[in-house]
Amino acid sequence: MKRAFFVFFCLLLAGTASAQLNINHYIRVGQTRISIGNYVGAIEYFNIVIKFKPHLPEP
């Protein structure tokens, strides 16, 4: 019974876990897209950064 409860508890925790948004990744991708001339793509990524971290001075 203890084992079943433990497995259930682990599955419950795993289901509620969510991935952390990696802002630095979105900034790097946006900067890369600017460097290759894909300005629309860069704006999309920078908008994600602004949505979740509006206090950053610049992306």
Question: What can be said about this structure in brief?
Answer:
This protein is mainly α and 59 residues long. The chain has helices at 2-16, 23-35, 39-52.
Kindly describe this structure.
This protein has three helices and no strands. It is an all-alpha fold and 59 residues long. It is elongated, with a radius of gyration of 19 Å. The chain starts with a helix and ends in a 7-residue tail after the last helix.
Which helices and strands, and how do they pair?
Blueprint: H1 2-16, H2 23-35, H3 39-52
**Helicity level:** over 70%
Total of helices = 3
What is the approximate shape? elongated
Low-confidence stretches: none
Distance between the termini: 52 Å
Order of helices and strands: HHH
Structural class: mainly alpha
Which short descriptors sum up this protein?
single chain, 59 residues, mainly alpha
